[in-house]
């Protein structure tokens, strides 16, 4: 089963806050706040930016960013996810989002590119970043979230999350695709981006809440700007 097929099976209840994608709903406010903080710090224009949301799923993050006034293009390889995202945006009358399954016909470039919970599902990291970062403007921001690769992350983000706590559908993650911050940074530098921020995401199973922390040991966020910025 391909990664697109894996996530297509959840498109029917993606927007159900108690459904299979409930954890995305829980972390979304933190993602949005983190993205806005980075934008305010590293962009000359904190509002009305052109944002590319890669691996947008059914649009949870895309819609939140659009509601803040940004112009958003959401890309997901799953056709059913894209259709669900389009329908949800239409119902909400959100007209500053465009969804598609690829960037083949895209002739614009973006101020911000978000790649959230995506890289741990990519087969070829270098190729994926090289192909998609071509859509960044000369001065741009890239914000990534993914899962670290170590014993703790394997035990917690894979086995505990999927098989003990049942907060993530079983089979969601493949251990061999987990990435250290060093690996991500190395590939981003190869595409002329420099790291400006890194932090971790912590889950409290007792409160069923997420929070940002300094350590990127398990889940982490990284932000990058083009090398000629600042």
TrEMBL record:
It catalyses: a 3-demethylubiquinol + S-adenosyl-L-methionine = a ubiquinol + S-adenosyl-L-homocysteine + H(+); a 3-(all-trans-polyprenyl)benzene-1,2-diol + S-adenosyl-L-methionine = a 2-methoxy-6-(all-trans-polyprenyl)phenol + S-adenosyl-L-homocysteine + H(+). One of its GO terms (molecular function) is 2-polyprenyl-6-hydroxyphenol methylase activity. The gene is ubiG. It holds the Pfam family Methyltransf_23. O-methyltransferase that catalyzes the 2 O-methylation steps in the ubiquinone biosynthetic pathway. Belongs to the methyltransferase superfamily. UbiG/COQ3 family. Keywords: Methyltransferase, S-adenosyl-L-methionine, Transferase, Ubiquinone, Ubiquinone biosynthesis. HAMAP family: UbiG. InterPro entries: SAM-dependent_MTases_sf, UbiG_MeTrfase. This is Ubiquinone biosynthesis O-methyltransferase. Its EC number is 2.1.1.222, 2.1.1.64. One of its GO terms (biological process) is methylation. Pathway: Cofactor biosynthesis; ubiquinone biosynthesis. S-adenosyl-L-methionine binds at residues 31, 55, 76, 116. It comes from the Bacteria. It comes from Candidatus Deianiraea vastatrix.
